[in-house]
Amino acid sequence: MASYILRRLLLTLPVLAGIVVITFLLTRLSGDPTDLLLPPNATDEARAAFRSVNGLDRPLWEQFVAFAIRAATGDFGTSLRFEQPAMQLVLDRLPATAELAAATMAIALGIGIPAGVIAATQRGKAADGLIRAVMLLGQAIPSFFLGVLGIIVFAVWLRWLPTGGRGDWAQLVLPATTLAFNLVALIARVTRSCMLDVLKQDYVRTARAKGVWERRVIWLHALRNAFIPVLTVIGLQVGLLLGGVVVTETIFSWPGVGRLAIQAIYARDFPVVQAVVFVFAVIFVMVNLVVDLLYALLDPRIGYK
Amino acid sequence: MLAQSPFAEPLAAGPRPPVALICRFRRSCARRVAGLFVLVAMGLVGQPALAQAPRTLTIAQGFDPQTLWPNGTTASDNLNAGGAIVEALLWSNPADGKIQPMLAQTWERTSPTTMKLSLRPNVAFTNGEAMNADAVVHSFTVFLDPRQAPAYANYAAAIDRVEKVDDLTVNVHTKFPYPAFELMLTQVYVTPPAYWASVGLQGFGQKPVGTGPFKLTEWVKDNRVVMDRNRAYWGKGPTGLDRVVWRPVPDDTARVAGLTTGEYDIATNVPISSIADVNAQRDRRVIETPSYRIFQLILSSLEEHPSPLHDKRVRQAVNHAIDKKAIIDNLFEGRAFALNGQLLRQSQLGYDPSLKDYPFDVNKAKALLAEAGHPNGIEITFKFPTGRYAQDREVSEAIAGMLAKAGIRTRLVSLEPGEFLRQLRNRELQPMAYIGLAPLDDPDFQLAQYRSNWRYAYIRNAELDALIDAGAREIDVAKRGEIYRQAGRLMHDLAPVAFLFGGFDFYGVTRKLEGFTPRGDQRFFLHDVTLKP
Description:
The complex is a heterodimer of chains A (305) and B (533). Chain A has 305 residues and is an all-alpha fold. Chain A contains 12 helices and no strands. Chain A has helices at 2-29, 34-37, 44-53, 60-71, 86-121, 126-140, 143-157, 170-199, 202-209, 214-251, 257-267, 270-298. In chain A, 46% of the residues are buried. Chain B contains 17 helices and 19 strands. The longest helix of chain B is centred in the N-terminal third of the chain and has 29 residues, at 18-46. Chains A and B meet through helix 2, helix 3, helix 5, helix 7 and helix 8 of A and helix 1, helix 2, helix 7, helix 8 and helix 14 of B.
């Protein structure tokens, strides 16, 4: 197992290196940030000074070499907009995003899995129909619309929740629920479909024939076997979650990495965009490694060498 | 926070075997779901989530400041917050448009190129350093350095040198007689030299020290900037106010919603569609401020931009073909002002009341096109930004529709704001483009943008250049006004742009706040506001 983990970690290095190169080139394709960061009437001298201070006047390959050497030590340069270390800006905001993502995942799993199991065991009945209708709605409504709707209903009309910001737990409810809505629907759908497959298996019939309590059959025997595909989906959805925080954090003024990313993209703040993409890539790769390792815990037949 | 969540425990169990995890989940799932709802109900209904400390003014702007050093950028979100801590030499009072003393108590032009500044005595920065001539000379040194204050290099270009006369007197010399001198002094923010030397430019932007009515208490990035009253403030300062909290709220709907629920006392950039809703509230209102931003169509007549617009009659036809009033009434619900065929606003020196807008007259436009040799109309590329100005796409599409009726068929090109600015700077917004320009409140800053050598001028005209130069160096106010009126008449005839409209800025504010008067450049000041209980 240890050698497998080490091998996987080593394999992530070329992936991350590739991401760094692609991000560097893509950000440069978007144009010169000088036009966005200085007023239109800035003098040519001021523009030249800005470009010189930020190394934008150097050839692209030279900029890349300098960036790559620094990036290897974790230094992604200085933000053009904030004039602070780019990686530090990202890391400062990471706890807020982690908090939002964890709450979202908790809601998504806490509602999605039971809903999927209930829909599967009640197949064709009213509960199944209701859950499937809500799932369809959850996957159809975009988070930016749902977020605004949540603000209008729960903050403005009912006055139950604040409109945004971060500080107390009430401020977490709306953004986490908004972000989780789509994920709940997906997890419930996958759980339902996997459970339907598993419930047809011989070992389930055998368990019932042995007289095992029905709840135990469903929640222990069946769900455990149905969980591996669900886990795969959860791993892959981390990417969607990281993308979702960009919109949700903006709507709810949540001070996380997503909001920093969108500001950096609009301002062509290359160092920050690169640092955000790198951190998101590391998270995505690591989460999927953890998911792979969890397979072995769920299914003893799976082993890593 | 997650530990309180009934859903957190199964996940947080980590290495626990999955079977045990599932069993535990099964046993307690229903109880935990019920628990969550009880918790939510108790927490949310039982306590007001939006409680604010008394005597606190909470301001929602679009963005968190990048820096609290006002000369770091020209973005109003930075300047409004930073300006509450760090003060300028003079300030332009939005209530009457007059330049008034701030850290410079008096100022006197001792020669056509010299301004003598007498500084306010007994003023100290909040770190104890004295605000004196050394601090002002230091601040000018930074202001004049394009590497440190690149956004202000345009305003600093006229300054030749700055010298200390005595502890409270400074002479500022310009390279030529400079009528916008006082306005330039409103842009110079005074910083403490010893503290600046110890923390540097970036450090100062993060933890500024100034002479202003507030001092920085806490800055949680992208969440809140908290400032408390500077009890040793040299002036009267705000009344009924101990603390200001600046909240970055990028989404318009969320900002207005927060204003509505009482989370914010001031919300900037209220969308037009929300004004009626805000005004309908008992304790909220919208302040509408005429903006310095002047919207126009660039009509390039530069020789390197071949197009039918080289002919003055075609440019005049474009002006006749656009129904400005329909745009103002329908897209802006009347909340924009007509330009009357000129680029200076009514309150500005050089505004000519005898000039009127080109009347909306499609037949006249067609006749002018025919006269210019285009009886079947013309086809032309029309560029516009999407997402830079309020309703930029809608306005541009409406204009394109109006032009088509006069035979001016446009190929619409939508540009992302960054690319739009790049093309502006490189004189690529041609032959026709929708733009809003918002220079400082002096006719020179407005009209200099049309001088032949200006980096984004789309006209070359020697007569206009001469008038712009004359106005930029004429100290006599009456003579200067007449020069700009002449320039206005010339521009009206040349039609280097289609004169469209001036915009408004909208601020949602609590009715408890008095003396809050935003300026047309989206700046507002807190040193003389009153927050009623």
